[in-house]
Amino acid sequence: MSEFKGKIALVTGAGRGIGRAIAQAFAAQEAQVAANDISPVNLDETIAQIMAAGGEAKGIVADVSKKMAVQTMIEEILDAWERIDILINNAGVEPHAPLLELDEWDWRRTIDVNLGGPFLTMQSVGRVMREQGGGVIVNVGSIAGRAHGLKDRSAYVASKMGLIGLTREAARELAEYRIRVNAVCPGVIETEMTAALRQNEAMVKKWLEDIPQGRLGKPDDITGVVLFLCSEAASYLTGQAINVDGGKVMS
């Protein structure tokens, strides 16, 4: 029997890629999954795949950068299951533009979603977890927020660096309520978000030269770390940002 059986897990940005893989992984471990995304199109497919595999999931369409939308989402989950044991902040956007050309709207939207979203969900879910006696939060960052920046991604890099700082401070403040907060920082993962870039053979070759393991990551490489961080095996682990990148960034 999985230790996640009967646990309620909220996964944001679960419509595709890493978010979908995390939602499926928790469902496979017998958790009840609240899968969120801003659009029902991809989210419906995530829910259908989980249900077809025998899992239990509920899809919730909401923009995590909006306070009222987040609060309504949390209330919907509580109405259905009465508690939230695990929060995975995965929703994110990544505009591509040089700093001197980046549109202000793209900057604000990136900060609002990638940093504001986790703040709003951690605040709302944190209050729920405080009342119920504990919980686990994992924020999905990026190695772009560590020692490795990304060209033409100033908004994304800023948001992910901020998310690591937010993770550490949240871990410090919420520890007294038995709430653990950590982050995973993926490298280049084979998802829809990187599909177009992976068509550039020269770029992929350059990526691989910088990765000691010599391969790109897969969504399952991330889900394994996330499940560990949410398990009792990681009960003494909080405030950490763990790189999952094949050794590209060793710090």
Question: What would you say this structure looks like, in words?
Answer:
This protein has 251 residues and is an alpha/beta fold. It has one domain: Rossmann fold, CATH 3.40.50.720. It is built from eight helices and seven strands, in the order E-H-E-H-E-H-E-H-E-H-E-H-H-H-E. It has a seven-stranded parallel β-sheet with strand order 3-2-1-4-5-6-7, with helices on both faces. Helix 4 (104-132) packs parallel to helix 5. The radius of gyration is 17 Å and the shape is globular. The termini are far apart.
Topology (SSEs and partners):
Blueprint (H helix, E strand, L loop, with lengths): L7 E4 L5 H12 L3 E6 L2 H13 L3 E6 L5 H15 L4 E4 L14 H29 L2 E6 L13 H21 L4 E8 L5 H4 L5 H9 L9 H12 L10 E4 L7
Parallel strand pairs: 1-2, 1-4, 2-3, 4-5, 5-6, 6-7
Helix pairs in contact: 1-2, 1-8, 3-4, 4-5
Key features?
alpha/beta, 251 residues, 7-stranded parallel beta sheet, Rossmann fold, 46% helix
